[in-house]
Amino acid sequence: MGKSEVILDSNISELQEKWDDQYFQELPREKSFSGNLMFKHDGFWCAEKVFHPIISFQKHFKSEDSDILLATLPKAGTTWLKAIVFSIVHRNDCTVDKSPLINSNPHALVPFEYQVYGKRENPDLRSAPGPLILSTHIPHNALPRSIFDTKCKIIYLCRNPLDQFISQWHFIQQIDVEENKPIALDKAFELFLQGKEYFGPFWDQILGYWKASFKNPEKVLFLKYEDLKRDTINQVRNIAKFLELPFSIEEEKNGLIEDITKLCGFESLKNMDGNKPDKVQPGLQIKNSSFFRKGEVGDWVNYLTPDMVSRGASLIEEKFGESGLKFDFV
Ligand code: PAP
Fold first, then answer.
1. Annotated catalytic residue: which of 107, 137, 140, 170?
2. Which of 35, 186, 240, 314 has its CA 20 to 30 A from that of 306?
């Protein structure tokens, strides 16, 4: 097995010592859908732009018991999950009608590790009040070791890979267009089927967190975008319980779960002042509005040919069939 292949958790500390220039030079590299370079590191395709910040996170992050890590593949519903978890954790700091989500994009309130580690190799993450909520796209087996030495909770949100692909495809049309021309949908789909997408292969990442959630259900909560859409209220209740911040009878009676669900809903967030098209994420150089496209389940049907769907569904069945994890294609 090459050093960039998926590795066992127990090998990570050994690998961490080898992150030098030679390691970097020898990594397999490919162009992503957007035309940008990515490297296969620790078993996942890492975009060149975030490679060094992610290495710093892997090397330096020191977890604490109260930490919360939100893990997703890009376009699996990260923005939504950030809004929900932020609202649950900070529900005593202000009322829902004064939520910071009104003026700030969820990515400004809950950063990705590559945003904070992109500014400094070893940033001070603990200056803001409350528990640290951090977001990542990296797989379970590539997470910093210290996360497993503390009670840090991990919430993983996955989405039907075909929807995640279509969402990603639309998103890349809006970024990096000056330097790189995104490739056509059918060509991008071929790369997706080979697992060559940012933080992919999707099957390795999803299965990694899926298995971890069974092995250690108090540490890893595995959610599906489709379930979150279908039954948001119960899922919000469930997330709070998992975080050991359950809603009190009083809060339930006062409709707080419904209020948070409504606040974090697609139309609500999309129309917030902080997410208007003129607002840009400084660390990400992306319009805040680009994180809100349709927010639907099954939009792949409008873009993929029956043959593409059939090939995608077969691959998904092949990769997930034995795991018990199912995605709908009707
Ligand atoms: P990221 O991983 O780059 O942060 P992410 O937030 O996961 O992006 O992806 C955006 C997707 O979530 C978009 O999906 P679409 O392209 O299929 O529409 C976006 O519309 C959707 N999304 C954002 N906010 C919500 C929400 N509140 N409810 C449901 N879906 C949402």
1. 137
2. 35
Which top CATH class is 38-320? Answer: alpha beta
Catalytic residue at 140?
A: no
Taking the complete model, does pTM exceed 0.90, yes or no?
yes
Give the domain ranges of the chain. 38-320
Q: What is the pLDDT of residue 220?
A: 98
Distance between CA 286 and CA 264 in Å, rounded? 20
Type of residue numbered 108? A
Which atom, in ligand 1's list, is nearest to the CA of 107?
4
With residues binned 3-state (H G I as helix, E B as strand, rest as coil), the percentages for the chain, rounded to 5, are: 50, 10, 40
| Distance between Cα 10 and ligand 1 center (Å) | 33
The C-alpha atoms of residue 46 and residue 52 are separated, in whole angstroms, by 10
Give the largest Cα separation in the chain, rounded.
Answer: 59
Decide if pLDDT at 330 tops 80: no
Of ligand 1's listed atoms, the one at least distance from the Cα of 294 is 18
pLDDT digits (tens, 9 = 90+) for 194-242: 999 999 999 999 999 999 999 999 999 999 999 999 999 999 999 999 9
